[in-house]
Design goal:
The chain has about 90 residues and is mainly alpha-helical. InterPro entries: Mito_inner_translocase_sub, Tim10-like, Tim10-like_dom_sf.
Length: about 90
């Protein structure tokens, strides 16, 4: 019988599932864009380079989206704090 999962275990499992989904999407996108010669078992140098470029662009895009999301969340949180302070009449220090 397996022990019950803690909240941390659930968060780790969710993070791992998210990672796998992202990895699978990256693999599928780059494979579809870069691999075109199925007449040989080896990967051609142009396909290999295309795959590396595809992966790098995807990772940079993903990182940039994460940064922008964090920036947006910080601005939204600052706005919510300012609105709450205005409603309560307190002045920030």
């Amino acid at each position: 019988m397996n022990p019950p999962m803690s909240s941390d275990d659930g968060d780790q499992m969710r993070s791992f599932k998210d990672f796998l989904a992202s990895y699978n999407k990256l693999s599928e996108l780059c494979f579809n864009d870069c691999i075109f010669d199925f007449t040989t078992r080896s990967v051609k140098p142009t396909e290999d380079q295309c795959s590396l470029n595809c992966m790098e662009k995807y990772m940079k895009m993903n990182q940039r989206i994460s940064q922008r999301f964090q920036e947006y969340q910080m601005i939204a949180n600052e706005g919510a704090i300012a609105a709450a302070q205005k409603l309560s009449g307190s002045v920030p220090r």
